Amino acid sequence: MDEQRREFIRKTGLGVLAGLGAVSGLFPESSMESAVASTSSGDSASGKTRWGMVIDTRKCRGECTRCIDACHEVHNVPKFDNAKDEIKWIWKSPFENVFPGESKQFVSEETREKSYLALCNHCDNPPCVRACPTQATFKRRWDGIVAMDYHRCIGCRFCMAACPYGARSFNWRDPRPAIKKMDPSYPTRERGVVEKCNFCSERLARNMQPACVEACPEGALTFGDLNDEQSEIRVLLDRNHTLQRKSELGTRPSVFYII
Amino acid sequence: MIEKALKGDRSYWGWIVFLLFIIAAGVYSYARQLDTGLTVTGMGRDVSWGVYIAQFTFLVGVAASAVMVVLPYYLHDYKAFGKIVIVGEFMAVAATIMCILFILADMGRPDRVLNVLLYPTPHSMVFWDVTVLNGYLLLNIISGWAVLGAERKGVPAPKWVKPVIYLSIPWAISIHTVTAFLYAGLPGRHLWLTAVLAPRFLASAFAAGPALLILVTYILKKTTGFDAGKEAVNKLAVIVTYAAVVNFFLIGMEFFTAFYSNIPGHMHSLQYLFFGLHGKGQLVSWMWFSMMIGLGSLVVLLVPKLRKSSTWLIAACLGIVLSIWIDKGVGLILGGFVPSPLEEIVEYFPTLIEISVTLGIWAIGIFLLTILLKVAVAVKTQD
Q: Is B319 exposed, middle or buried (0-12, 13-18, 19+ CB in 10 A)?
């Protein structure tokens, strides 16, 4: 009996080890190495598109909400009065909320009082995609956009727990009655699914700029291909010191800020 | 065998009717939730999981804790657990079913639940959790029922049951480890981003689960006269004691790492839970109550004389279960969302509908456990 038991314990241990090994072998995304590589190596492979955005916060006017209104209008984002049911794709928050890890001492008055745009970062290494059990949220291989399939989402809200930027909203109630002006060119959502900024993939398909970029009267938002060295966005990144939100988490956001 | 559950005295049927009443209320509340959406709960954009997921987390622990009777009995041939092992297994079955129901109750689109299997996604921890939970449920139903069925006929259990039971041992560890991985792998949720989360889950499970089992054996003794044996209960009490020591030790580790390193993100959730943050701290009294009653119960358990007295043991087990239920079933899940990724403090209060659904699911679990144990006791006492 004693021998058998020892043998059993030994085999179980070996089995577990073999299982773990097989998992990381079969799914390279889940192995340790890729996690390390993604935080250390800076730029992604060229050849495919990687959409990104630079927000020049120096140009952004505090009280203006044109980009937010435009986005929420073209995407049929409902407006609820309470914070609990709130749905937002792009919004403004104070510096300490958008950049909680950044310096908190002797912050200039301007930085302290201004509000900063927050939206989905379309991370190159998105934790929401890792967490989603149905691939209802996924990173598009051809252009890096983190997209949503509203018809597949089961509403488990794992992506909301996984997103370190609070970029995702859940339809706690039927959104349709709360849509002010229905835009028939973009689908409305149903109760019970998660949604967020889609980098205007429906407009990109028609060779248009994202709605927020187009709406900004100051030209504070620049959209483009991060993998194209000649693009305007890369020139901006070359010439300015920029920040990514919570870059220490290794998510590699595609939204950059000039402070 | 199931027909044995149809024979009972007045108090048995009274209990069944009482549970059915709570279940009916829960079903009604759930219908309202289905109709209006999850807005009827207290959850919102910032605290996006609440009492459902918290109960799920606690109950996975209860389910996993069956291993604390299965392992000594089947692997170490510890005979004293002979009468209690089926109680543990059936408790695991009931707890696992409650876990599955809590997950379903929390889903925005429960009608699409099969998408998890239609589009299997190995990089998602939910996929593994669904797999191991359902597997564990099957393993326990099959082994428990087969062993009990053999006992009823007075024949030895079929040979194939042994490997199934052996498999259930590492499987029990896996369900709670994977449950911890649901939380521990998320960047930006500092309370959960800790390597000791899975060990802590296991330790708290092996304290709260057997403590609950001790309470169930006392209830069984009182209501049916079925006695699991003094030795079994004493041994379980020792298991609860050791596991509780490890649990509180690991909680201490969390405090040391957060507060000695002094990294704000690591401290914030603990500050919110235990001391309040920026004037908000709805859970502070809960957390201290959990600490006090847990440590107090542990002191009782550590004294052999007190541990061997039924009254003290029952009190201590109640204390441990309550303490860990608050720690895991209230603090851990809610604390993970406060402060939010944008460092805002949003508090959560469950609604009546949410509480009613929660009670309904608990009642379903207790109903199942009652029926299963009714059958088990009838077989064991040759009624």
A: buried
Number of domains composing chain B? 1
Output the domain CATH number for residue B358: 1.20.1630.10
Tell me how far apart the alpha carbons of residues B120 and A27 are, in angstroms, rounded to a whole number: 13
Q: How far is B139 from chain A (nearest CA, A)?
A: 17
What radius of gyration, in Å, describes the C-alpha atoms of chain A? 21
Cβ atoms of A166 and B342 closer than 8 Å: yes
Mutation target among B34, B112, B128, B190 for the A interface, most CBs of A within 10 A: B112
Domain count, chain A: 2
With a cut of 70, say whether residue A20 has pLDDT above it: no
Can you tell me the distance from the alpha carbon of A163 to that of B130, in angstroms, rounded to the nearest whole number?
22
Interface confidence, given as ipTM, is 0.91
CATH of the domain at A94: 3.30.70.20
Chain A interface includes B159 (CB < 8 A): no
Q: Render pLDDT for A149-195 as a digit per residue (tens, 0 to 9).
A: 999 999 999 999 999 999 999 999 999 999 989 999 999 999 999 99
Q: Which residue of A has its CA nearest to B173?
A: A16
Domain of A136, in residue numbers = 51-258
A76 in the same domain as A26:
no
B334-349: per-residue pLDDT in tens? 999 999 999 999 999 9
Q: Do residues A38 and A68 share a domain?
A: no
Residues A161 and A191 in one domain: yes
Flag whether residue B354 sits within 8 Å of chain A, measured between CB atoms. no
Chain A residues with CB under 8 Å of B341 CB are: 100, 163-166
Please provide residue A105's backbone torsions phi and psi, each rounded to the nearest 5 degrees: -100, 140
- Is residue A101 domain-shared with residue A7, that is, in the same domain? no
A53 closest CA partner among A217, A216, A164: A216
**Rounded alpha-carbon distances, angstroms, from residue B80 to B69, B145, B235, B375:** 10, 20, 9, 21
Which residue range(s) make up the domain with B312?
Answer: 2-380
